[in-house]
Amino acid sequence: MKKIFFLFIAIAAIVFACSKEKPKEIDTPNKGEITVETDESFKSVIEALAERYMALNPQTKINVVIKKEDLGLLDLLDRKVRIAVMSRELSQKEKEAYDTKIDLPWLPGKFAADAVLFVVPKDSPLESISMDDIYAELKSDKKRLIFDGTNSSNLNFIAQKFKKDPSQLKFSIINGNENVAEQLKNYPDKIGVISYNTISRPFGEEAQRLRNDLKILKVVKENQAYDVTGDNLKNMTYPFTRVLYFVSNEAYYGLGNGFIRFSCQQLGQIVVEKEGLQPYNIFKREVRMK
């Protein structure tokens, strides 16, 4: 009888142990799955970085989710996502929220220089636009400037540049950078505002097609006209150059921090360069002659 009793206890213990949920395995830089949220303006470069990282680390999966910049930051603070991509400076209130909710040192992973462009159809007579003209348009009821949406990185960055809240500005909306570029021909009196990354990939078919349809306006600041060139991005002399950076809530060296480190180091910076953007961390190439 005792044997039967102890046998019953042993079986019950085994069943109980098997029914318990196994603890979730902590990911590592070369194994696991995470989600990165990015504004549509930087979709091309983030997808390229994720694809390259996964090719080098076959046991990883990086899901790139497109979401407006402000909403991506909120998801990061609420721990709904591991990494968010930002282009503007966080407000003091946002930094305090990060300190409170995440409780980690503020260490943005800067990886590329992008830019906000002012574009018109190829046959437009316009060649340039001044800082004063842009500010005047943002206050005009004509709403000649077309942005890719509210809460978007392009609008947020321009508003921050002029020290204004986006709600104080006047503008038109066509959702999506590519849609702005494609539909601009239907609004000859308008000026599109898009990210450089939308058209920067040198050999991308879609980027090439959009470049062929658009004229990028020079931006005039203090009587000097600036093109979007590698040197002007590198030196940040183009007035609307912006630095792209990662924000993370990962408190250990897992897949999130592994991906950020990769993006900021040499292999990732080569991907950034192939995207037509300016790498933030520049690696010197040395040739030794014997």
UniProtKB/TrEMBL annotation:
This is Phosphate ABC transporter substrate-binding protein. It comes from the Bacteria. The lineage of its organism: Bacteria, Pseudomonadati, Bacteroidota, Flavobacteriia, Flavobacteriales. Residues 1-17 form the signal peptide. Residues 25-263 form the PBP domain. InterPro entries: PBP_domain, Phosphate_ABC_transporter. It comes from Epilithonimonas lactis. Keywords: Signal. SUPFAM superfamilies: Periplasmic binding protein-like II. The keyword Signal applies. PROSITE patterns: PROKAR_LIPOPROTEIN (PS51257). The keyword Signal applies.
